[in-house]
Amino acid sequence: MILGERIRPRAIEREDLPLFVAWLYDPEVRQYLLMDLPLSQAQEEDWYENMRKQQPRQHPLLIEVTTPQGWVPVGNISLFDFEDQHRSAELGIVIGDKQYWNKGYGREAVNLMIKHGFQTLNLHHIYLWVYATNLRGIRAYEKAGFVHEGRKREAIYHKGEYIDLLLMGILRAEWQENMTLPGEEK
Ligand SMILES: CC(C)(COP(=O)(O)OP(=O)(O)OC[C@H]1O[C@@H](n2cnc3c(N)ncnc32)[C@H](O)[C@@H]1OP(=O)(O)O)[C@@H](O)C(=O)NCCC(=O)NCCS
What we know:
Layout: E1 7-11, H1 17-24, H2 27-30, H3 41-53, E2 61-67, E3 70-83, E4 88-95, H4 105-120, E5 125-131, H5 135-143, E6 147-158, E7 161-171, H6 172-178
Parallel strand pairs: 4-5
Antiparallel strand pairs: 1-2, 2-3, 3-4, 5-7, 6-7
The structure holds coenzyme A (COA).
């Protein structure tokens, strides 16, 4: 895995699960995640056991950021639904600790995952779905080099209204052309 300037992705341990419970307890964190209710510790443990049965490339990684107090876990990121014939995969990210929103960590984590996907896993196309109302997410993905590929109209029913889902994606060639992180080689 590739280290970032301010973040390091690492494997998720069982001991991290209480953090996930706490993050997903917050409705503001859950609101764009197709998750109406919080998850219990037992549900997180089931998720963890199921995750361990998946191929290692599908395992989400914990995002840790460097602070004066040391490395702090703030969220997780993953590539999943790999399509080997088409060399594509979907990306998912949650920064669960809200005090770390809007500081560029999402963009940096996405950039690292894209690099991992294209350079190490030899993907051709990485895509994601995002609520049209998730302006912070959309902006972070655009800054990471994703372009708008489509719109699934009124796909989500949330709190009394239908919301469009946007499809965003990036091709390996686009990443190679544009997405070198400062100070890094492609
Ligand atoms: C979405 C998420 C991953 C983005 O990560 P982040 O670290 O907060 O995002 P970044 O700081 O890299 O970028 C956010 C950008 O959106 C901008 N932004 C924030 N709120 C905005 C708003 N209401 N309208 C427009 N832009 C907004 C920020 O200013 C920033 O842009 P800038 O760097 O040009 O100033 C993170 O906020 C998160 O996990 N949220 C909760 C779960 C979630 O939504 N997951 C994604 C599901 S698809």
